[in-house]
Structures are given as structure tokens and as C-alpha cells.
Design a protein that fits this description.
The structure is a single chain. This protein is α+β, with helices and mostly antiparallel strands and about 1050 residues long. The protein contains 36 helices and 29 strands. The strands form 7 sheets. Strands 10, 11, 12, 13 and 14 form a 5-stranded antiparallel β-sheet that branches. A hairpin with a 2-residue loop joins strand 7 and strand 8. Helix 21 runs antiparallel to helix 22, helix 26 packs antiparallel against helix 27 and helix 30 packs antiparallel against helix 31. The longest helix is centred in the C-terminal third of the chain and has 28 residues. The chain is flat and about 150 Å long. The N and C termini lie far apart (about 150 Å).
Length: about 1050
């Protein structure tokens, strides 16, 4: 099938001579030899039928004084400029009429130009900031939209550029020759065509050009034959052999450009060297070159392209005496991958003349010049060309015609390849396409690869097929459906329904009848694989399916294999890095030979697929909070899902599946894994049950009980959340043990793994454990594996015994660092209630033990509610606890009254003051408060408190106010009783400073009096006394 439809005329009868043509969006711009610019609107009327309507919008008369040689566009952010080359000068015309044109002064004596836009990471021009201390810090590159305009002038090139809407300074570089053709490869590399034989690669970053050197041209036998065949002809039949070569260069990819040297097309890399050993060999130098990915267009002159005969599949040139060449220009289309011809379209463009079955003598035709004037930077169809009659009279009368090339739908081409069973060819074609031209490319790739894998499976390439299914993340239900019922169960599908199941076309009645016998042989082979005796097997799946594949190949060969339009089969040859898609050879009889058990090998391959899917499904389910460990009873079993529902599961990465779809896939995988083990590895059946899984319990429960695989059965119960059955079995087994630890440990370990959603079951089963051994049973609620709701656990344990609840609260506060005030309040209340209960029972040991815990807790803990707890204790005789709480409330005088008057424990009162005292705060006078309670009691006491008061003064005199302390002392207290206090008081800085001050003053007074006495004496000095 030829990749392009016949060109359609969109603008016929254009009277002016067309020199330049450009397309921008839905606008078609035409530049003429008189300097006029014609603007047309291109509108797709019927996308399905490919109808295009072109309507004139505007004609700008005399845009330039002379011929418009080239048109281009600079579309950069807000800029929308038309680039015009005329009179060897380049001018920028804003598409909006509000701005005047801008001639590029530096681009004088211009021959050509090219425009390229891309997003580049540009280093900022600002200097690095070293203030942060990092001397090696560099500013990060900034992504910018960069548009470049290269103008090839006389022996130089001028580079204009715009960055994010801002024009940059133009740069120039000298060249050894003038660039006639410019082709961008990427934002930095450009290919220059100086002449038909001289080319160069130019680097914008270094502003240097490197000449392209190519090997010497090779004269092929085809070219020699063509020259010999035309040696006796003259006129139009020999026009193509004398055509003067033109420089030609087109961009193939970001790394390759195609240049034309004489009759040879050479692919050049960015390093200015030949990138491929293969080259294009045209029968004559092409007049024009263009590129529409992945096809290369070339306009070949008349009389150089042979007419292919319908009875020959080769390309050998006929040596008949009559001419057997197309007498007009030919549009030749080649694949840029294989470099082979895919389609020849001769002029005039009509279905009769362009078919691949042209034969007979060529009649003279009115020829025309064909020009591919549309620049193709985007490498996309459609492509426009201009035809003008070579006869001046006809050209004046008829004018020129603009034609539009449209490629056939890629989807249609792929669908036909799939229909014919050529899956490898379809995949190779997909590799050449971008998602922009085929939005569902990845979907088609997945479907075609899966169909190719089914073909591999039918040929006995089980491992290859399974590898493909793994790479594609294919629906496990469809993979399992390829297997017999003993593995796939109700999912098993007959061989003739495999292709439709995987998204291929349904077989027609003719196909079904032609495959009936082979299908019967395959079914027979599969049935023999099921039997234990496999010695009579002599036909493999590959042999039985080969006839089907060969018949499909023959049909394709009949459509594609002959003539000029060899089509898709050609463009996919020699794809680098890909398997070479070739047509299957004719079927040859093969000897029937015995083969190993195909079913066994296929299940081994299936186990590899299931083993790959299983952990990935587990991780995917775990990421959404679903694992076999926390599976709910409400999940519908696999048997409740319809076959249609299972086959409709998407073929997509697990990350794109919903939790429900992931669950179904996991159920299919584990069930198939269990059945596969049952067929070929029954000894490993227990390992499947020991691991968390999604298989049906009913299929393994009885087998495990019969074989007394109780541990495996318990694990299976746990995975299915059948905890009641698992715990009942554990209790049944534990009753047989005499030792308490052996009896309870399995149940405790099982209960420790259960989460909060199973709290009722945990409480119910733990009662038996607490009744047997409370210390061991308590370990149920101290598990590191799961976190149970602490409030519910505390209440439940309090119902069994408050000491278990207190023990649990101590555990979560001390070990788990619980900071919720409610739990701290609850623990304090439990201590209080347990203290009172022990007191009522007369259990002094328990009371003292719990009461000490209460005192320690309220003294050190800061998270419980003091007011709430004091309200509970205020009416009790737990004086020390009340004193501590009063201290926490800042009521130190009342706390000390309890210690002094109620408890009469002066040491604890003093210890309390030590804990509360803090210099410079409100508690600075707590010792003075205690002293006041001793010496000025607020209640009647029967005991003299002077002794503890004097002890307090002697031990803590530095923390007591001296004056107030002396004022509090009774009159009968002697100085000897407080001698140490008085000595320490005198040594206080306030007293020591006063003594020094008074001594210094007395000394100063003494010196002043002595000075006055000396100054009062008089001595008369005369001459006689001297």
C-alpha cells in the first residue's frame, strides 16, 4: 500500500509565476516573480475524506520591487514576522499592518535563509554570588524560547536571534563560499549547501564551518543500463540524463541531514561525516528535495524512471527496443529508514498514470516543471508543490497549479498490517511515528505487541511471548486464557478465538475454513499434552500455526511485493536496533518429530509470568492500603466475577489500575499459580499457602487439613482475615499442650498481628488467655507490629482487672511516649481508686505500693490535669498527695500546712521547700513560709515547733530573709541558739559593705583633722633666718 494519496489541486490556474511558497498555521503564502504576495486560507472541510478548501484572503501588490525568492516566518512569543528574500536582501514584514517592515542591513547580498525555534537552557549573564560562602556556586541555566534566523550571504553567514521576545545582537562569520541552501539540524548545527558538490556543517556556538567530505560516487549498474538504453533516443526522452545538478539539502532528524551529490543522496551526521554506509541512488540528479517524516520526496526529471511491468516483481530495466521509461517528471518517495523507494507518482497526477502496473510504450506528454517550494521544518504532511507547463503558451493560458500531498492515515496502514497478521511490520512502522501524528501510538503498540506475542506462543515460543506480556503489563486473565482448563479453569479460550481476544480482527468465514484442519491438529496436540503419555506427540504448536501465518504473508506479498509501490514492507527494512521484518517464506514440508511436553514448558513459562506479576501486584495493592494481611471478608470471590468482566481488565501499568482491578488481577494470578503448582509442582503447594495470597480458600482448605498442614492453613486463614477460624484452630491445638507458654504463645503471636479493625475478635480471644496466664496474655497488647486503639484497650483491661489497665497505661506512657492528657488523667485516677480499694480490703502492702506510684506520678508528670485530680482527692486523707497537688497549683502555704499540721512530717516539709524554692521567683520565700508556720502557727497545736524552726534556720539561713527571720523569733530565744545564723548574717554582703564604709569614713576624718592642725601653724621667713 502506497503511503500517500494522489496529489490534489488546491489552487489551479494561478497566472503569476510562483517563486516562493510558505505555510503558517491555516495560511498559505505565495510569493511571485512580480513581488506580489498572495495569502490564502486553508481549511479542512472533511477530515475523513481529506477534502481541503483554499480561499483567497488578501493580495499584497508590489510587496517587493522584484521577485520574491523565498518566504519564511519568525513566530516568537508576541513577534509574528514574515521573512522575505528579494533582490538579495532579507526583510522582516510584520503580519500586522501597524508596523513598518524592517530590512536586515547586515544581511546584504543574501542567497538564502532558514528559521529555527527551540527551548534552550541559557546560562544567565549575571556573575555568581559568592556572599553565601560557596565559592563554587553557579547560577542555574534558565529555559528560554530561542528563535534563530540564519541568512546565507556572499561568503558569510549572519545569525539573528530572539530570546524570550528580546532581539539579540546579530553575529557574522566568514565562509569560504556562499550558502545557497540552509538546513537546521538543531539549534546549534546547520547544514550549508554551497554548490552541487560542496557542502558544510556550521556550528552556531563556535561560528565555524566544517567542510563535508564524502566518498567518491559509485556508478550503479542500473544507472549504466539506463544511459545505455537511451543512447539512441533524443528529445524529451533524454531530458533527465542531461539535467544540471542543483545543490540540495534537507533535514532528516536532529542528527542527520541528506545532501545530494550528482545522482547520489548521502546522509551526513552532525560531525560532517557520513552517518550511514547506505546511500540513495537516483537515476538522475533530483531537481527538488523535501522531507515529510519518514519519507524523502525528490522530483526526478523526465525519462529517467523506468515503468515497472506487472508481471515482474524485480526492478530490472527492460531492454526492449520500445522505450519503457516514464516520459514526464516523477515525484519519487523513499523511506528515510531503508532509503528504498516506496512510491513513484509521475506527472500528470492521476490514478491511471501513477499505478504500479504501467506498461506499454510511452506517449509524449505535455510536461511541466515541478517545484517543492514548501519548507518542511516540522517534517509533517501536507506538502505543497507547484507545477507549471514548460511550454510558454500553455503556461500563459493555463497558469500554474498548486497541489497538496496528503499521506494516508497511519491508522489505516497499521490496521491493514494487523489484519494480514504482519505484526512485526506494524511494530517497525510504529517506531517511525511520533505521538503527534498518531495520538494512540502507545495503545496500538501495546495491542500489536500482544498480538505478536500470541503469534509467538502459537509457534511454541513460550518464553518470548511471556517476556512480551511482562513488558506490556498485560491483563493476566487474557494470558491465562491461552492455557487449558486444568490451568485456566473457566477462563480458557479456544485457539481460534485468541486473536479476537487480544484485540485483533475476527477471522472471516474463509479464514475459519482454511484454518479448520490446523486448529483441529492444535487441539489434538493440546489434549495429548494433558495426558500422561506424550510419546505419540509429533506436531508442535509452531508447525500447526505456520500455515496460517504463511497464508497471511502470501496475501501481503501479493499486495505489496511488486511494482513501484512496494509500500510499507519496504520502509521497515534495515531498521537500526530492530528486528528486520520480512515476509514469511513459502511453507515447506517438515518432518514430523517427537517434541517435549509442550504443556509442561508453557506452564513453566506461565509460572515465570505469575511470579513476576505477584510481587508487583502486592506492592501496588499495598500502596493503596490493601494487602492480603488486611483483606476484608466482603471482597467478592473470583467465582462471582463474570468472564467478560475479567477479560475487560485494562492492559496498563499497575499504577494506573483501580484497587478493584488490582484485586481481580491478584486473584487471577494467585489462583492460576495454585493450579499451575498442582499440575507440575504439587510439592510446592504448601509454600503458596504459607505466604499471604489471594487464592480461593475453598480450593486448599480441605487438602491442608487432610495433610495436617495446620501452620499453612493458619497462615491462609490470616491472609483471608478468617481470624475466628484461625484462633479456634490455635486454641484447639493449644489445649493439647501442658505448658502454659506452649499453650498460649501461638495464639498470643497471632493476636499480636491483628490490627484495630479486629478489636472485638482480639478482646474475645484474649479472655481465654488472661484466664490461663495473665502475664503472658498481657503481651497481646504490647506488640510492636500493630497499634491498637489505646482508649478501648484500657477500658477492656480495666474490665478484667484495673491493675492490667494501669499496667497498660504505664506501658504506653513510658515506652510509647504517650502525651495525651486523658491517658495520664486515667492512670492517676486508677492509682487513686486502687489505693482506696486496697485500703478497704486491708491490703496495706498493695496500698503502699500503689500509693507510692501515685505520689511518684503526680510529682514527676506534667501532663495530667492537676485541678481535676485535686478535686477528686481533696476530701480524702491522702495528705501527701494533696500537698503535692497544692504545690502544683502554687498554693505552697496550704501544702506546707498539710505537711506540718496534718502529717507532722517536718523533713518532708523541708524537702518540699527544696523542690519548690527558686531564687528570684514567687517561690523565693517558701522557707520563710515554713518558718512562719513553725513560729506563728495558724491552728492550735499541742507540740512545740521551736526545735524544727531552729533546725530550719541553721540549715537554710542563706535562703531566709534576715530581718523577717529575726522578727519571727520569740523573745526567749538566746543569741547562742541562733549564733550560726547571726554570724552568717554578719557575713552577708550588706553588713560587710557597711562596716568597710564606716571605717573608711573614720580614717578620712582623722586625716582631715591632722591636716587642719598643720595648716594652722605660721612661720615667718626673713633674711636673717634664711
Amino acid at each position: 500500500m502506497a503511503p500517500f494519496v494522489q496529489p490534489t489541486p488546491v489552487i489551479p490556474g494561478f497566472k503569476e509565476k510562483i517563486e516562493a511558497l510558505a505555510v503558517q498555521g491555516d495560511r498559505l503564502y505565495i510569493g511571485t516573480s512580480t513581488g506580489n504576495l498572495h495569502i490564502y486560507n486553508v481549511e479542512e472541510q472533511n477530515v475523513d475524506e481529506g477534502e481541503t478548501t483554499v480561499t483567497p484572503i488578501e493580495v499584497k501588490k508590489a510587496l517587493t520591487r522584484r521577485s520574491i525568492e523565498q518566504l519564511g516566518f519568525v513566530k516568537h512569543m508576541d513577534l509574528n514576522l514574515l521573512v522575505v528574500l528579494s533582490e538579495a536582501a532579507v526583510t522582516l514584514f510584520p503580519l500586522s499592518a501597524s508596523s513598518p517592515p524592517t530590512p536586515l542591513q547586515k544581511a546584504r547580498a543574501a542567497f538564502s535563509f532558514a528559521v529555527h525555534s527551540s527551548v534552550q537552557n541559557i546560562e544567565p549573564e549575571t556573575k555568581p554570588d559568592y556572599s553565601s560562602g560557596n565559592d563554587f556556586a553557579k547560577p542555574k541555566p534558565i529555559p528560554m524560547l530561542v528563535t534563530q534566523l540564519l541568512v546565507g550571504c556572499r561568503r558569510k553567514v549572519v545569525v539573528y536571534s530572539w530570546r524570550d521576545g528580546e532581539a539579540q545582537e546579530a553575529k557574522e562569520a566568514p565562509l569560504p563560499h556562499s550558502a545557497r541552501i540552509i538546513s537546521f539540524l538543531d539549534h546549534d548545527t546547520v547544514c550549508f549547501a554551497y554548490s552541487p558538490t560542496d557542502y558544510a556543517m556550521f556550528s552556531i556556538s563556535t561560528m565555524t564551518a566544517v567542510d563535508i567530505t564524502t566518498p567518491l560516487p559509485i556508478t550503479t549498474s542500473a544507472s549504466a543500463t539506463a544511459i545505455g538504453a537511451f543512447s539512441g533516443f533524443t528529445g524529451y526522452m533524454t531530458l533527465g540524463l542531461g539535467v544540471k545538478p542543483k545543490p540540495a539539502s534537507v533535514r532528516i532528524s536532529e542528527k542527520e541531514a541528506l545532501i545530494s551529490k550528482d545522482s547520489e543522496g548521502i546522509l551526513i551526521g552532525m560531525d560532517a561525516k557520513v552517518s550511514r554506509p547506505e546511500s540513495i541512488e537516483w537515476p538522475a540528479p533530483p531537481e527538488e528535495l523535501a522531507y515529510v517524516k519518514p519519507y524523502i520526496f525528490s522530483v526526478l526529471p523526465p525519462g529517467c524512471v523506468p515503468i515497472q511491468s506487472s508481471d515482474s516483481s524485480s526492478s530490472t530495466i527492460s531492454t526492449q527496443t520500445q522505450p519503457n521509461f516514464i516520459p514526464s517528471n516523477v515525484i519519487q518517495i523513499r523511506s528515510s529508514i531503508s532509503l528504498l523507494t516506496t512510491q513513484n507518482i509521475p506527472f500528470p497526477f492521476n490514478p491511471i498514470a501513477s499505478t504500479s502496473t504501467l506498461s506499454g510504450p510511452a506517449t509524449p506528454l505535455a510536461n511541466s516543471t515541478i517545484r517543492l517550494l514548501t519548507p518542511s521544518p516540522s517534517d509533517k504532511a501536507p506538502l505543497y508543490l507547484v507545477t507549471t507547463p514548460t511550454d510558454r503558451t500553455a503556461a500563459t493560458a493555463e497558469g500554474s497549479t498548486i497541489w497538496q500531498f496528503k499521506m494516508k492515515s497511519w491508522a489505516d496502514q497499521l490496521d491493514e498490517l494487523v489484519k494480514d497478521g504482519q505484526y512485526a511490520d506494524a511494530l517497525a512502522l510504529l517506531d517511525t511515528l511520533d505521538e503527534a501524528v498518531l495520538p494512540d501510538k502507545e495503545t496500538r503498540r501495546t495491542r500489536i505487541r500482544a498480538l505478536n506475542a500470541v503469534a509467538d506462543y502459537r509457534e511454541g515460543k513460550f518464553d518470548v511471548a511471556i517476556d512480551t506480556f511482562i513488558e506490556l503489563d498485560f491483563n493476566p486473565a487474557k494470558v491465562v486464557a491461552l492455557y487449558p482448563e486444568q490451568v485456566a479453569g473457566r477462563l480458557s479460550v479456544p485457539l481460534e478465538d485468541w486473536i479476537p481476544l487480544y484485540g485483533g480482527p475476527k477471522p472471516t468465514t474463509t479464514d475459519e475454513s482454511s484454518r479448520a484442519s490446523s486448529s483441529e491438529e492444535v487441539d489434538k496436540d493440546r489434549n495429548e499434552d494433558k495426558s500422561p503419555e506424550g510419546h505419540d506427540q509429533s506436531v508442535t504448536t509452531a508447525e500447526t500455526v505456520e500455515n496460517l501465518a504463511t497464508s497471511a504473508a502470501d496475501s501481503i506479498r501479493g499486495r505489496i511485493g511488486t511494482g513501484i509501490g512496494v509500500g510499507l514492507g519496504v520502509i521497515m527494512r534495515h531498521v537500526p536496533g530492530k528486528e528486520e521484518p520480512t515476509l514469511l517464506p513459502p511453507p515447506t514440508p517438515k518432518p514430523r518429530r517427537p517434541v517435549p511436553d509442550g504443556l509442561h514448558r508453557s506452564i513453566e513459562a506461565l509460572l515465570r509470568y505469575l511470579s513476576d506479576r505477584r510481587p508487583k501486584l502486592g506492592k501496588a495493592l499495598e500502596s493503596v492500603g490493601i494487602t492480603p494481611k488486611n483483606q476484608s471478608h466482603t471482597i467478592a470471590p473470583l467465582s462471582e466475577a463474570s468472564i467478560k468482566e475479567l477479560f475487560s481488565l485494562p492492559n496498563a501499568p499497575l499504577s494506573l489500575l483501580t484497587p478493584e482491578q488490582l484485586l481481580r488481577c491478584a486473584q487471577i494470578v494467585d489462583t492460576a499459580l495454585y493450579k499451575s503448582y498442582l499440575v507440575i509442582r504439587p510439592s510446592l503447594l504448601g509454600s503458596l499457602c504459607r505466604l499471604p495470597n489471594w487464592c480461593e480458600v475453598s480450593e486448599v482448605e480441605e487438602d491442608l487439613r487432610t495433610r495436617q498442614k495446620f501452620a499453612e492453613l493458619i497462615d491462609l486463614y490470616h491472609g483471608k482475615k478468617m481470624h475466628a477460624q484461625a484462633l479456634a484452630l490455635l486454641r484447639q491445638l493449644g489445649e493439647k499442650e501442658a505448658d502454659a507458654e506452649d499453650k498460649l504463645s501461638p495464639s498470643i503471636q497471632y493476636l499480636q498481628k491483628l490490627g484495630p479493625e479486629h478489636l472485638p475478635q482480639i478482646f474475645e480471644s484474649s479472655r481465654w488467655a488472661f484466664a490461663t496466664d495473665s502475664d503472658l496474655a498481657f503481651e497481646i497488647f504490647t506488640s510492636e507490629d500493630v497499634e491498637l486503639p489505646r482508649q478501648e484497650v484500657s477500658i477492656f483491661l480495666a474490665g478484667i482487672d484495673p491493675k492490667f489497665s494501669a499496667r497498660y497505661l504505664e506501658f504506653i506512657i513510658e515506652e510509647r511516649q504517650e502525651t495525651t492528657p486523658a491517658f495520664h488523667d486515667r492512670l492517676a485516677e486508677l492509682y487513686f481508686s486502687m489505693t482506696l480499694t486496697a485500703k478497704k480490703r486491708g491490703d496495706d502492702q498493695t496500698r503502699n505500693e500503689v500509693y507510692n506510684k501515685l505520689l511518684q506520678f503526680i510529682s514527676t508528670n506534667r501532663l495530667y490535669s492537676v485541678d481535676r485530680l485535686y478535686g477528686v482527692l481533696s476530701s480524702t486523707d491522702l495528705f501527701e498527695a494533696r500537698a503535692i497537688l497544692l504545690g502544683r497549683l502554687g498554693r505552697h502555704d496550704q501544702a506546707l500546712e498539710l505537711y506540718v499540721y496534718r502529717m507532722r512530717d517536718y523533713l518532708k516539709a523541708e524537702e518540699y521547700c527544696k523542690r519548690a524554692y527558686e531564687q528570684g521567683t514567687t517561690t523565693n520565700g517558701v522557707f520563710l513560709t515554713l518558718l512562719r508556720l513553725y513560729l506563728r502557727p495558724s491552728v492550735n497545736v499541742n507540740e512545740d515547733l521551736l526545735a524544727p524552726a531552729l533546725d530550719l534556720i541553721s540549715r537554710h539561713n542563706s535562703r531566709l530573709d534576715i530581718v523577717e527571720t529575726l522578727q519571727l523569733l520569740p523573745p526567749l530565744v538566746t543569741a547562742q541558739d541562733v549564733r550560726a545564723f547571726l554570724i552568717e548574717a554578719l557575713r552577708a554582703p550588706i553588713f560587710d559593705t557597711g562596716v568597710i564604709r564606716h571605717i573608711s569614713k573614720a580614717r578620712n576624718d582623722q586625716l582631715s583633722r591632722k591636716l587642719m592642725l598643720l595648716q594652722a601653724k605660721r612661720v615667718k621667713v626673713t633674711d636673717s633666718r634664711m
